[in-house]
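User: If only I could read backbone structure tokens as easily as an amino acid sequence. Underneath my words sits a plain record pairing an amino acid chain with its backbone structure tokens. This is the protein in question:
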Amino acid sequence: MKGIGSYTGSMDDPFSTFKLTPGFDLDLDDLRQHFLAASAEHHPDRFTDPLDQADAAERSAQINQAYQTLIDPEARANALLALRGGPAASDDQSLPPTLLMEVMEIREELEQAVADEDRPTIARLRQWATTAYDQHLTKLSKLFAAQDLDGKAVRLELNAMRYVQRMLEQMPDA
């Protein structure tokens, strides 16, 4: 291939797309700079040969997909866990034992607050969910930083974080 450069990306390893060391805690500004550089280098408009353009279009799509994976904490954690041989979400859907009951109670309270147009309660419940989400992110960071990765513990946190994230997505603004 003439002019395509040293593309090293892999659909299985989004970190390799940007030549980054796999890790949960990323410098998002640095990631963005890598993304912009890779996007510019592999943009289809840089090539005149139709085959090179087609290859560049495919690489651009892979670069975009890798960036979307790494910019999202949940997707990044799932990709990193897969790279390290941990369980996939489809293989382990376990949740912390008290989470379901806690979420059910919060949802009931939220339903009532929405029906009553109780903005302070909605704001308080949104804050609870935001704090819970941030706590799961912090736990994930610590688990990935540990010398010996506990894949089951990571999956448990990921599943719980996703549960809380869904709740946040469904909550009205206060």
Residues 1-7 have pLDDT under 50 and may be disordered. Residues 100 and 163 are 9 Å apart (CA to CA).
